Amino acid sequence: MRQAVLAAPLAILLVAGGCKAAPEPAAGRETAACDGVPELAMVGRITDAADILTAEEEARLSERLARYEQRTKHQMVVATIPGLHGARIDNFGTCLGNRWGIGRKEQDDGILILIAPNDRQMRIATGSGMEKMLTDDAALAVVHQMTPHFKSLDYADGLSTGIEAIAAQTGDSQ
Predict the structure, then answer these.
(1) Which of 12, 35, 99, 132 is 20 to 30 Å apart from 56, CA to CA?
(2) pLDDT over 80 (residue 20)
(3) Inter-CA distances, 162 with 3, 5, 53, 57, Å
């Protein structure tokens, strides 16, 4: 309903202003996919809202992500959240990636590793510019590599395994 109310004034402004490709407001762009996804501030390459990593683990993983970005120019970040608040994990990951602007805008080459330990779910979300390098099947294979670590609550090693697997798949093997 709210979209319909906003659509008419926006259409009038576009026609009156002569804009051919005015950017859509973020709230309008994410409405359906982001239903139930709470706001979460990005605090760095690692946003550990679920508090599952030690400060040393965060620093080590963050350093690796910085090297990855320096070498490939692609941006990969990790987010942990206690729970999904009723949202689907794929929507949560896509919504966070878009809200945070992960990756270079022109290339849409961001990667987000999302973990919701209380819901026992995880997701690797990619920008469209990464889909040829990191296909859905390849991302699922990475998830399978990470899962045994997570089952034993070793989140840092699971993330390290996933980051290295993604890095190798996308052009940065150490």
Answers:
(1) 99
(2) no
(3) 39, 44, 15, 14
Residue 162 makes CB contacts below 8 A (sequence gap 6+) with 113, 124, 142, 143, 145, 146
Residue pair 51/81 in contact by the 8 Å Cβ criterion: no
- The Cβ-side half-sphere exposure at 34, using a 13 Å CA radius, reads 16
State how far the alpha carbon of 93 is from the alpha carbons of 9, 143, 150, in Å.
Answer: 31, 14, 18
Contacts of 95 (CB under 8 A, 6+ apart): 30, 33, 34, 37, 87
Place of tokens 């794929």: 90
Sign for the pseudo-dihedral over CA of 37, 47, 159, 110: positive
Q: Which residues pair with 46 in a beta bridge?
A: 78
DSSP 8-state class, residue 121: E
Give the torsion through C-alpha atoms of 118, 124, 126, 130, to 10 deg: 170
Structure tokens at 151: 């089952």
- Do 71 and 170 meet the contact criterion of CB atoms below 8 Å apart? no
DSSP E strands: which ranges in 14-151?
A: 46-48, 75-80, 110-116, 121-126
pLDDT tens for 61-120 read 999 999 999 999 999 999 999 999 888 898 899 899 989 999 999 999 999 999 999 999
Q: Where are the alpha helices (DSSP H) in 109-154?
A: 136-151
